[in-house]
Amino acid sequence: MSFISPASLLDEVELQPGRPPVLLTEITGDAPRWAAEHREALRAVVAEHGCLLIRGLGLRDVAGAGAVFERLSTGLMAEREAFAPRRTYADGVYSSAQWPPNQPMCMHHEQSYTLEFPGLMLFACLTAPDRGGATGVADAASVLEELPTALTERFEREGWLLTRSYNDEIGCSLVEAFGTDERDAVERYCRANAIEFAWQPDGTLRTRQRRSAVMRHPVTGRRCWFNQVAFLNEWTLAPEVREYLVEVYGADGLPFNTRFGSGDPIGEDVVQLLNKVYEIHTAREPWRAGDLMIVDNLRTAHSREPFEGPRDVLVAMADPVRMSDCSPAFEVTAR
Length: 335
Known about the structure:
Elements: H1 6-12, E1 22-24, H2 31-37, H3 39-49, E2 51-55, H4 62-72, E3 88-90, E4 93-95, E5 105-108, E6 116-127, E7 131-132, E8 137-139, H5 140-146, H6 149-158, E9 160-166, H7 174-178, H8 183-192, E10 196-199, E11 205-211, E12 214-216, E13 223-225, H9 239-249, E14 256-260, H10 268-280, E15 282-283, E16 292-296, E17 300-304, E18 307-308, E19 312-322
Parallel strand pairs: 1-2
Antiparallel strand pairs: 2-16, 3-4, 4-19, 5-17, 6-16, 6-19, 7-18, 8-15, 8-17, 9-11, 9-14, 10-11, 12-13
Helix pairs in contact: 1-3, 2-4
């Protein structure tokens, strides 16, 4: 295997409208070694285009995919404040979020509600679904430019508010989200991460955290629409799912919801607009077994489309970035 320079690798990348950048390769042996030898070139392509799908690595198991993840990153991260359960395969190597196969996971930036989030997302497809299930991508700077100025200016002034209600029936439990169910430890985490919290009479926890909706990429300086305003909003849920959750838990007890930073509700029309703009800028390519995708998490939003049949896509979050290093439009101060 010979070293390929960033410039040469850029020339090999296939660029087509509606598809993420794709690099075709033929690796018959050591994929982790190949990844290590071409790490800088691959990361340069991601810096240029925001993401890259590599086809032909032949990834087939957790050990091989995890080794590739480690070679390509500067450090894998443990997930905190998860919104949906995952299976942990190894340190920093997870399954995709457990989300109903018939429901889409709309565009979002992983852990954009945390004070330290992954700068890089890594996905490895071990088993491709029979139908659907693509991991779509969308350029966050282009989405920001497409949105109405009055709307983005309001979000820049106010930020966005994430509300969560933790229970043992739906969504993540305290242990899955915080790594513990001890009240003192959960409260210490919340205080250190600018999260308001309130224990309910039945022992469940409700939280509120206000975050910036617009950030500057720490390397390029480009302003990006960086949040999970649409994905975690009640109006993105399927109507029957939303109606059921509201009936069971009440409007204020949904597992998660988003609002304007002032606390005002976000209307269904706003959420529909956000998802429409995301769709305009979405690029997608069906998974094939063995594929690897590298995504700049700040510059590029990602989604998961509904699917049929088995789908096994491993996930790693890597290269931690502090929100304070991204010139957030709305400053967050931890206590």
